[in-house]
């Protein structure tokens, strides 16, 4: 179990080290000393995990390693932010006064050599090595044997872990294996500390410039506000670190919550008694015993009296016990950990429901910060206060990012693991162009961003003037520019943007904000309002596209590879009752308006399209028989999977139009999960393979006489929009907030220039070169303000 856990963690490491670590674990797990080694490793990881801060964690690590390996010294060096030097951060065996003071140049000494070569260095007599660099302050005169191992996470050398001994000797392979394994664990802890800014203060105490936390650009724009954690409090881990001076009311709320859960358990136990076997019934007794445990109650009350908010104090008391039980080897005890956690959640629900336990965000601009975000999280802040969104998981293509873009709210995604509660209430800058955030920014950073926001505001005013002008090139070629929508609230933004209709209405959002599948009538109301708002301009309604990262709270789909699983058309064809209900609602909503177009998502085979068309014909027939004056709307196919791209011709002949979904097409072409922050750097819809696929789709769609729309996020990128125009795409669908910029770009080029740009782009070999080409073209056309190089 332990090595499984450890090996899993390696998947986040750089490939050579991950491989090495994997083999080390395999090797040591086969040896008879393995249990001993793994036990030490486990203990170090546990102690480090429980350490209050980074300095203590490093101090514990070096002391434990020195004792376990029986060596004279163990030291950790960390690379500073600019990678200019290695700072001695903790030592057991060298001069403790050197901590934080000794800095080696980045390539200096054996430490520099380890970092440079990115592999372990085992030297019998260090002072004789040509790269040895004596540093008087560390007092290492008596040491000869040297073993240094790089601390690497995501290909980046974070520092070097060193052990030294007095004898002249080579460290044996077991010692090397051990240190490599520890280093891999330590690197992941350090990476977390670096991301949360904990190392910054230690490494650069004099540097007052705020360091950016790097994530992934989610939705463009810049925002400032106070970190606000949406309090769904569904899970203990989401409870923020919050203080409260209202001891009496916090205590009362806590006692009331405990009493409510006791009552709930008693009722549940009575209700289920005749149905449950005795072993299951006993669980209620166990729960009640846990709930009345004096120590759990006392610890929580102690936390409240020490000034903590009741949910925070409860969280700490519960999680301390969960951790203890989880560490137990005994499966009975580790199962109890889950029980305590469950109990913790139940009490939390009641604490949350209490009248004074729902602190409203302070008036003023708020930046919502959460691990994962749903529409319900967004509702935690009044819309006029919502300035920005920061999501620790996900990427630019996660649905919260798409929503943020639709709402015009800057967003940063995939910031990685970091304790949420720490930041609550702090000032934060969200740079949605470069995927960066600054927590508690210094005055210079603040002023810089303030200026950027002013420039943005001026640009927005300027772009507003384009609202009623056509999306037309300088030589008069018109390309319809549509907006995208997901909720009825998007109607106003789409209309204000000057779009010529809705090119993609994602119907799943209406399903996501509910507690059960909507009825035909409920859907009819929504669709009717949408169609009526734009008639006679077209509204392209896409049928339900759930699965992947879009799940319904009332219909969870658990799969190992959700993006390759039961999503989009695969799901709806397997549930014709849901599909036909939706089609009927759409067709009814279109009566007498006649501006509906229906779009089928995630088509991968011709048979799927045939079946979907058959069901559409059935819905149409049923409605006619019931007396509805329905008409058959134009039907489109999303081309967002390589198999569909290669069958563009066959699919096009069966449909009225095509719509290229580059968000998915990119993920399936490049084998890069659109929702995984770890590989977000590899996700690029300007990749030549994606461009060639899009060119193929356009050409073959046209050969079959069908127009080709493009509705992926690519259409919202002004440079890419000009490129797509040049490639021959017939219309573009961008989020409402991007429509003015895209229009501005289109109006700044001639059709011939766009075609020439496309010709050149299709000859390039890398996405970077394509981006450079587009940015240069935008600058030459005087659109420098909307060029935002990737970070
Ligand atoms: C796409 O895949 O490009 C697309 C528009 O669909 P979605 O992002 O909703 O999957
Ligand atoms: Mg898609």
What does this structure look like?
The chain is α/β, with parallel strands linked by helices. It has five domains: 3-203, 2-Layer Sandwich (Beta-Lactamase); 213-227 and 363-437, Glucose Oxidase, domain 1 (3-Layer(bba) Sandwich), CATH 3.50.30.10; 233-353, PtsI, HPr-binding domain (Enzyme I, Chain A, domain 2, Orthogonal Bundle), CATH 1.10.274.10; 482-596, Phosphoenolpyruvate-binding domains (TIM Barrel); 634-785, TIM Barrel, CATH 3.20.20.60. The strands form three sheets. An eight-stranded mixed sheet has the order 7-14-13-9-10-11-12-8. It has an eight-stranded parallel barrel with strand order 15-16-17-18-19-20-21-22, surrounded by eight helices. Helix 2 packs across helix 3, helix 3 (34-50) packs parallel to helix 6 and helix 10 packs across helix 11. The longest helix has 26 residues, at 247-272. The protein is globular. The model is unreliable at 1-30 and 354-360 (pLDDT under 50). The chain binds phosphoenolpyruvate and magnesium ion. Phosphoenolpyruvate is lined by residues 504, 506, 545, 640, 661-664, 711-712.
